[in-house]
Amino acid sequence: MEITLVEGDITTQRVDAIVNAANSSLLGGGGVDGAIHRRGGPAILEECRALRASRYGKGLPTGQAVATTAGKLPARWVIHTVGPVWSATEDRSALLRDCYANSLRVADELGAATVAFPLVSAGIYGWPVEDAVRQALGVLGAATPARVTEARLVLFGAETLRVAERVRAG
Length: 170
Fold this sequence. Notes:
Domain Macro: 1-170
Number of strands: 6
InterPro entries: Macro_dom, Macro_dom-like
Protein name: O-acetyl-ADP-ribose deacetylase (Regulator of RNase III), contains Macro domain
Helix content: 25-40%
CATH class: Alpha Beta
CATH architecture: 3-Layer(aba) Sandwich
Shape: globular
CATH topology: Leucine Aminopeptidase, subunit E, domain 1
Distance between the termini: 19 Å
Mean pLDDT: 97
């Protein structure tokens, strides 16, 4: 699987699946989550509400992943995952890694060949960017999916891309 780093807006990525850094309610929010819901339109929210009414009555647990339609986005699916909130006193990195691993597993089950990931938890959830990149690349680099051929890490801003390139170079 090829891992690419790109600066840009995840909602414009032409891929099979876009990963959403969702909140546990699955009902939209700020940051990446809000942008995906706004750009994708009401079909995403409709499916998220159905998931809440059935399998996820208490919300999607942190680190887990579930797919919906992509609505008006240039993708077939949105894979929603809930990242952990950064804590200086508790190591939650396993939950962050689970977000990538479970999203990749769902993408593979869907038959997606290309998947665009945001930098999960690095926005409003406060995860330090350098470590967030390290966690993402660690999981994606070790993965051996059957169907996914490209995992694209879509980074918001030139500085975030520079950090990611530096982390990847070692």
